[in-house]
Amino acid sequence: xxxxxxxxxxxxxxxxxxxxxxxxxxxxxxxxxxxxxxxxxxxxxxxxxxxxxxxxxxxxxxxxxxxxxxxxxxxxxxxxxxxxxxxxxxxxxxxxxxxxxxxxxxxxxxxxxxxxxxxxxxxxxxxxxxxxxxxxxxxx
Length: 140
Description:
The protein is globular, with a radius of gyration of 16 Å. It is α/β, with parallel strands linked by helices. The protein is built from five helices and six strands, in the order βαβββαβαβαα. The strands form three sheets. The chain has a two-stranded parallel sheet. A two-stranded parallel sheet has the order 2-6.
């Protein structure tokens, strides 16, 4: 649910974090949905979990996501805080936003099966977001 990483999606022009940071640089208030919940998940963490599962020979189907859940607004606000961006950010209801596709109100997932198999908890999304900023390096 809601994967972010250094290279982002080519078809979407990057990832949500980079998109909102670009929006913040425009000087206009950034409007972000506050009533849709998800589990932000860092691509490097997914890769590490897949590697661990492969190493132990695990089979089956699992949800792989960082711990915790938040709204898109909370995620954007945390990204601004970590990046040191001071820009106006406004929470908005999903019905006020024009979108190409309807979104489910809560796409957050449990990763308890993977944590049980691996024997350790996965990283919290806030810790992973901080790691993302370290990996990507300084902003342009």
